[in-house]
Amino acid sequence: MQCFIGSGDEDLQAMKAGAMLRKVKSRSWKKQRHFRLQEDGQTIWYKSRWAGTGHSTFSVADVDVVREGHQSEILLSIADEFPADLCFTLVFCGRRSNLDLVAESASEAQVWIRGVRKLIQNTKSMNDKERLDQWIWDWFQKADKNKDGRMNFKEVRTLLKMMNVDMNEEYALRLFTMADNSESGCLENEEFVQFYKMLTEREDVWRVFQDYSRDGQILTLAELEDFLKQEQQEGERSLEHAQELIDRYEPSENAKKHGAMSIDGFQMYLVSPEGAILDPQLLALHQDMSQPLSHYFICSSHNTYLMDDQLRGQSSQEAYIQALKRGCRCVEVDCWDGPNGEPVVYHGHTFTSKILFRDVITTLAEYAFKVSEFPVILSLENHCSMEQQRVMAQLLDTILGDTLLRAPLDRLVPQELPSPQDLKGKVLLKAKKIGGVEESETLTDEVTDEVSDEDEADPKSLSKSKFSRELSDLVVYCKSVHFHSFEYSRQHSKCYEMSSFSESKARKLAKDTGAEFVRHNSRQLSRVYPSGMRTDSSNYNPQELWNVGCQIVALNFQTAGPEMDLNDGLFSQNGCCGYVLKPDFMRNDDSFDPERPQDRNGYTSLRLSIQVISGQQLPKVNHKEGSIVDPLVRVEIYGVFQDQAKQETSYIDNNGFNPLWNETLNFIVHVPELALVRFVVEDYDKSSRNDFMGQFTVPFTCIQPGKIDLIILHLRVKSGQLGKSQLQFSLNDCTK
Is 605 left (phi over 0), alpha (psi -120 to 50) or beta? Predict the structure, then answer.
């Protein structure tokens, strides 16, 4: 076993020695903290000089990127006090806030910038064996309280509690004694590895391995092929694939030489993408991207500028960066008159903070196409005077440049919306437009227009509004119009006209006239936004609106919960590009009614059978002394009304380390093309509400039947970090 800090790397050695860095939270909150890299080469520790024994840590694996200089709003606000060469920002994965830091010198800043970047790269480039070694080393470091490089039995008992294990002390001592080959009463490096392997031995995986291994020690090439055919339901390539798996995952060179796989290699295969429940071909970009925009679900954000609630929350460019990094393709900007002739962005008539429209558009220009090359829709809520509207138009034009779409493709009047493929690398402005695409050359400079649907929800905005020609001319394929009725739209609306609906109005239309809504959305775009009553930035269930083909179902991205889990699950497919092709029966003139799915042509239901086998290394959610979780697994189906269902396993007493369920849950799914499957793990509590531990959401159509898979759960914890644990499932059946 080894420590992963680069012994010959000067930057990492300097980080290990530590440094005083200023942690900056605002212009007025700048405090010195002592930072250092711990021995594992993966954990950064820091504390205040006044904090006594108190300290904080974070893993380098949780850091997404290091930004150099004044590349955050907070560091920009202190640019007059600290030059850019002293400043850097650690941007975390998930929802955790950025960490803004100021070094004492430019050379010290560079040590930490280079060092953290090296560590991030090292973490990303680790193979499965190295990750396992790192995992073991991490636990050794946590258990070795006196840092003497050895672990006595008292430290072992502490380790077991940390690992969520409620183990009989006599059995724990037996494992300890078996691993203590030196009979010293302490475990050293390799002895700890042996103890860890005995502790983490997977009876569930071993049982499957034994079912196919004749001698119980290895899987021959033929036996592995048999497993792939029988359990993983692979076809003609199974023999070739078996050899590839041995070459890729078997850690023993001797086993490789004989074309065999050990239990270690078998387990590494199961936790790899190769053994995934998801079809990797469907997770990659694979859909037809040449159909009209109205034929796609589009990943969409509401009030994108907000980091928190709708009344007093912070407005931030960082919120746009985070949304775009998650594949969001429709962002919202609420614009109001600001000082010095500069439009500002905030939630009007509230105490939310304000940011410059100029800065939002600059951020959009930099980050719009880093994750996805397909078009971004800029949904503009315009509350500005004529003068500042002209400023907005100028800023859009100069900052976005050629990425801003200013005219119809090929200068032709559209008969149908263009495709994401046609609009690659383009920003589309969604706003009011005076007249149509055909008439833009004949407009006067200032025209009064009717209010939009979202304005109607705000009684302060009911007066007619003036709209400048400069801004109007930038609207091409996303003209905001008031919705009258489906009949009116069918007879009078152009393909480039779209309406916004409050969640309550959209849900009522979906319930009362679902088939009409589906038909409408095959031709035109619809946007749905949360109720104004959701001042806490909570979300509605997006599935109900996807069921009727609404493309732009806007959610508050800053709020974690089942609704955003569904959104992340739906858009995890097709390369996470932010566009998902709707089922064919929602793209044509066929009459699909989500309330009566059995009436559609070609209807057939599927039976889904999921065996929940086991879990491993589930986290503590209650950090009280001696607390051990009692985990249960719930499987939830989201889709049309008839498909909404949930079932759960029993709970396992006091075992978050390696709980074993072996329970089967069965479902009937009527419209698999629209269904999402959500796996949830909770800590059972008989006297109060269960504690949430983690979840994983996947489109039903991306599931591979027959797979035995170790699902990696994304775990939401209070700090906003993402952790990882495993659940093992077998999809026994997915048949008609």
Answer: beta
Q: Is 31 annotated as ligand-binding?
A: no
Tell me what the pLDDT averaged over the chain comes to. Answer: 87
Q: Do residues 608 and 638 make contact, with C-beta atoms less than 8 angstroms apart?
A: no
**389: helix, strand or coil:** helix
Q: Which residue in this structure is represented by tokens 């209070």?
A: 718
Q: Which of 70, 295, 302, 670 is catalytic?
A: 302
Contact status, residue 609 vs residue 731, Cβ threshold 8 Å: yes
At 735, is the pLDDT very low, low, confident or very high (cuts 50, 70, 90)?
very low
Is 381 among the annotated ligand-binding positions?
yes
| 484 CB burial (10 A radius; 0-12, 13-18, 19+) | exposed
Mean pLDDT of 222-239: 88
What percent of the chain has a predicted confidence (pLDDT) above 70? 89
Range picked from 46-60, 176-190, 203-217, 320-334 for highest mean pLDDT: 320-334
Amino acid at position 446, single letter: E
Task: Using the predicted structure, report yes or no on whether residue 721 has a pLDDT greater than 50.
Answer: no
The one-letter amino acid at 203: E
Residue 628, annotated as binding a ligand: yes
Is residue 432 part of an annotated ligand binding site? yes
Can you say how many angstroms the Cα of residue 103 is from the centroid of all Cα atoms in its chain? Answer: 32
Length of the chain equals 736
pTM for this structure? 0.88
188-198 pLDDT, tens digit each: 878 888 887 78
Q: Is 158 left (phi over 0), alpha (psi -120 to 50) or beta?
A: alpha
Quick check: is 347 catalytic?
yes
Calculate the CA dihedral of residues 464, 470, 476, 481 and round it to 10 degrees. Answer: 0
How confident is the model over 589-636, as pLDDT tens digits? 778 999 999 998 888 899 888 888 888 778 777 766 667 889 999 999
Of the listed ranges 59-63, 165-169, 449-453, 496-500, the one predicted with least confidence: 449-453
Instruction: State the Cα–Cα distance between residues 642 and 524, nearest whole angstrom.
Output: 27
Q: Which of 559, 687, 575, 711 is nearest to 635 (CA)?
A: 711
Instruction: Give per-residue burial for 611-637: e unless 16+ CB within 10 Å, then b.
Output: bbbbbbbbbbbeeeeeebbbbbbbbbb
Contact predicate 296/550, CB 8 Å:
no
Annotated active-site residue 34? The verdict is no
User: Quick one: tokens of 420?
Assistant: 């994401």
- Specify the pLDDT at position 454: 60
Whether the pLDDT of residue 729 is over 50: the answer is yes
pLDDT at 353 exceeding the cut of 80:
yes
Q: Annotated binding residue at 655?
A: no
Q: Is 223 annotated as a binding residue?
A: no
Task: Identify which of 676, 646, 710, 645 has the alpha carbon closest to the alpha carbon of residue 569.
Answer: 676
221 in Cβ contact with 243 (< 8 Å): yes
Task: Tell whether residue 685 is among the known ligand binding residues.
Answer: yes
**Annotated catalytic residue, options 347, 383, 520, 670:** 347
> Binding residue per annotation — 74?
no
Lowest-confidence region among 43-47, 325-329, 352-356: 43-47
Higher-confidence residue of 719 and 62: namely 62
Mean pLDDT of 536-563: 97
Instruction: Report yes or no: 392 and 384 within 8 Å, Cβ to Cβ.
Output: yes
717: its two tokens:
């914890």
DSSP 573-618: SGGG-SEEEPPGGGTSSS---TT-GGGSTT---EEEEEEEEEEESP
Check whether 473 is labelled as a binding-site residue.
no
Contacts 24+ apart (CB under 8 A), 713-718: 713/679, 713/681, 714/94, 715/619, 716/95, 716/560, 716/692, 717/619, 717/621
